[in-house]
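Researcher: Structure prediction, please.
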Amino acid sequence: MNRQHPTPLGPRVFLGITLSMAMFLAACGGSDDGNIRTSKTPEAAADHLSEAFAGADSDSMKHADIASKAIKKGQFQKALYAIETIKAKPDVNFDQGVAINDSLINLEQELIYRAEDGDKKAIAAYELLKRINRN
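Model: Predicted structure follows.
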């Protein structure tokens, strides 16, 4: 019997996201040195967020600090609300946008791990993250 197995959706979705990010980054330019910083842990992403908003207006700096501290303490919903606040600001520059996305990506990964282990707070935070990503 000559059966064809359907291609899993996962790689297609990954490819689509990768291509979308590449087009976004090409359209927006990059940092001065041409490198885009990415973090490997939520804690590193929290530091990235704080550093990116160090010279921002006081409200943005405050919310970036709240988000950074909340990420490090595992208070993910608090972190997400603070990130949502700064993400909505019209004056977010490229490096700040990269730091926001870096934080959201790392948070998503951590929340998925915790949700798979049955963490109810992580499941609730993941639902909030999905809502934020739609906006």
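Model: The radius of gyration is 17 Å.
Researcher: Thanks, that helps.
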